[in-house]
Amino acid sequence: MKETERTILYIDDDYQSGLLVKFFFEKEGFKVELAMNTSEARDILKNNPVDMVITDIGLPGENGIEFYKWLTGSEYKDIPIFLVSAHAMGFNEVLTEHRDIFFEKPLFFPNFIKEVRKVLK
Q1: 110 backbone dihedrals φ, ψ, rounded to 5°
Q2: Which H/E stretch holds residue 6?
Q3: Cβ proximity of 10 and 35 under 8 Å
Q4: Which end of the chain is more exposed for a tag (fewer CB within 10 A), N or C?
Q5: Are 81 and 54 in contact (CB under 8 A)?
Q6: Residue 1 forms part of a structural domain
Q7: From its phi and psi, is residue 29 left (phi > 0), alpha (psi between -120 and 50) or beta?
Q8: What is the β-pairing status of strands 7-11 and 81-85?
Q9: Residue 79 included in any domain
Q10: pLDDT tens figures, 83-101
Q11: pLDDT given at position 98
């Protein structure tokens, strides 16, 4: 099933990881905007309609959890968000409070894309 007109904002300071996500999601018909940090992500949100945000947790400066808290208290609070990380053990809050929106890297794209589609229905 191809997605049309659905835009994902993916935030990750690992550019190669971003390109991989972009490749798999665009192959399924999504549009993907990449941001290397939360400042770039805010600029994208201001200037582009976004259907979903996916952010790495371990970002330099403001991390993904801080960005999640900002997003859910902002004018963008209705945009669904997923948190991803290869190193979540240091983020106990994620493992307890946000388990339902957390996905561990490396991502298994068929299942991950299925979860994104469920949220965007």
Answers
A1: -55, -45
A2: none
A3: yes
A4: C
A5: yes
A6: no
A7: left
A8: unpaired
A9: yes
A10: 999 876 666 666 677 788 9
A11: 74
The CATH number of the domain holding residue 48 is 3.40.50.2300
The CB density around residue 68, as the number of other CB atoms within 10 Å, is 21
Is 11 domain-assigned? yes
How many distinct structural domains can be found in the chain?
Answer: 1
Q: Which two tokens stand for residue 103?
A: 């996905």
pLDDT of residue 99: 80
Q: In whole angstroms, how far apart are CA 96 and each of 18, 83, 90, 102?
A: 26, 13, 12, 10
For residue 60, give its domain range.
Answer: 7-120
Residue 2, domain member (yes or no): no
Token match 């940090």: residue? 37
Cα 8 from Cα 102, distance rounded (Å): 16
The pTM for the full model equals 0.92
Distance (Å, whole) CA 33 – CA 67:
16
Sign of CA dihedral 63, 69, 18, 86: positive
